[in-house]
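Quick log. Single chain, no ligands specified.
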Amino acid sequence: MIILTHPRLSRCRHALCGACQALTVAYFRQCPVCDDTLAIAKPYNGSKGKGKGRGGGVIETDDDELRARTMQRVQRAVDMFEASGPNGSNGTNGTMRGAAEGGGSEVEAICAQVQRHQRSSREAESSTRIALEYGNTIKASGTSTKTTYVSFVTVVGRLTSKEIRGKSGLSAAACIQRCEYNINPGYDKPTAVVTSPNAKGLYQFEYAMGRTFPCIMKVFFKPEFGIPPLVLNYYVDDQ
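-> predicted structure:
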């Protein structure tokens, strides 16, 4: 497969296509091929965020040579497609002749991927996308019969070119208005409402119990993002 806007990750050396990059490492800091942790070159916008694994910096890549070779192939394919495309003077038969003479199946695959990447770029530029991390940790509660479950929600990344009133940060406080936790799903009223993150950027809720239990999280985003509330049907884990 041809690779567009392709990072080749510096640690594991895996190369990703543009579409895969937009769905994986743009949000998360693990290689989608081998799960290796990505190397981070520097924080975004010169900030001093701690960032590794949380979307806080620029991914280290080693793709100059790969990019040059790939773009040559893409340009040849685009030139061939335009010269003998469906609306060109050569028509369908011309396309087939180009396929036979120049490896047409590859040409068609490259052009299809170019179009796919253009569509994904347009979608990213016109939409707001926020990546959340949620789950729980456990700690001793001071008794032998109960465990304290610490549920949390935080923002780990944002992929969008759309400006939202000048907001460009990745912090949870910049994106989340509040988070409601409900350990009794049969009741509409939440067990707890958390309106601000802790020092680590987590909207956190603690509850001690002798067993695991459902913990439904409802995330409300800041109004300027135009994102409806997100319900996370979660069950705490004691592992």
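Confidence is low (pLDDT under 50) at residues 43-56, 88-103.
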